Amino acid sequence: WRVIQSPTGAPAPDAKRELSQSETPTEEPQLQTEDETSEFSRPTPSPQTTPKAAPSGAHNGVAIPTFTLGEHESFDDDEDEDKLEPPSFPALNSAQRTSAPSTFMAAPTKPSSMAPPPKPATSSLMAPPPRIVASNLRALPKPSQSMHVPTTGPLPNRGPVPTRDPPASNGSLRLNASPTVPSTLKTPNARSRVLLSPGHSPLDWAHLQRSGENLSGVSSLVRVTPAMLKHNNGRKGKPAWSSYQGKVYNITPYLPFHPGGEGELKRASGKDGGKLFMEVHPWVNWENMLGECLVGIMVTEEQAPGHEKGVLEEMD
Ligand code: HEM
């Protein structure tokens, strides 16, 4: 534990640095001087070199060697590198040091009794860092060329904005809209909910669907021809049917519950309402909303048996 003390009586590295800052020696160096004299039988060192050696490494006569080595490593580029003390290990009186008197007795130089700390760049366990050459640096894209995201103007190759915006209120505007431009962008009033009459909230509709009431208007599922669908357009007391993805629904009971208003919903009467529906609110689950209103499935005229016509005439 005395290995931190220099055999030449030179102060420890910390003491060197502190001395360079012109600090006044204290009483502690006296203890250090005595210790060094008895240990190495050397004359009392110069007062210029001894005073601050004790505070940095000796506490109650015990030097702490651990940080001394670390500091040597961390100050590789320090201008005082050549004046550094010998390493703390092995101990000054160890067999290793006595077998190498040249390094032990010589003036403070780079420690030769210990292998120098490995440098990461030359370690065999780590691949050396890639060389950075000027040509590589020039090959990197400039931020203004490829990394820059334009903040104004149209985004290239993105296509039209999908119609997942809030629905529009005026269907005629959407119908007149250009097919390449989202209709919702041209609609002045993008969202127009109607004021539903009392007892016709979405929750009321949910209750009605679960009530068991026949909302489809038919006793069993029927095969609906295009003519049948067109006929049931909600006019003149006829039910309003609308098809969606090959299924036909009776939208009549839902009309007063439709948040977009009866007028909007009636536009899908007697025909395939899928296109209109998807233009306005593709996020709405049609099949869940109108599950109890299911009338049947779409078939061709040839596929329609005669009794379906009977059902149609019944409803007329
Ligand atoms: C036939 C099946 C349909 C069902 C089940 C249905 C259901 C709904 C629902 C649940 C909402 C509220 C949406 C929300 O809260 O985000 C809504 C709103 C609306 N629907 Fe429909 N709809 C149907 C058909 C249509 C059709 C065919 C049109 C237009 C031609 C339309 C136009 C609107 C409009 C304008 C709104 C109000 C805007 C809004 O609430 O954001 N709906 N519809």
- Portion of residues in beta strands equals 5-15%
Average per-residue pLDDT, rounded, comes to 65
The ligands found in this model are: protoporphyrin IX containing FE
H/E topology pattern: HHHEEHHHHHHHHEHEEHEHHEH
> Into which percent range does the helicity of residues fall?
25-40%
CATH second-level architecture of the domain at 202-315 = Roll
Oligomer: single chain
Question: Which regions have little confidence, pLDDT < 50, spanning 5+ residues?
Answer: 1-47, 49-59, 68-82, 100-112, 135-146, 148-189
Top-tier CATH class of the domain at 202-315:
Alpha Beta
Supply the CATH superfamily name of the domain at 202-315. Answer: Cytochrome b5-like heme/steroid binding domain
Rg on CA atoms, Å:
46 Å
Backbone structural class? alpha/beta
Number of strands: 7
Q: Might you state the CATH topology name of the domain at 202-315? A: Flavocytochrome B2, Chain A, domain 1
Strand order of the largest sheet: 3-7-5-4-6
Distance from first to last alpha carbon? 110 Å
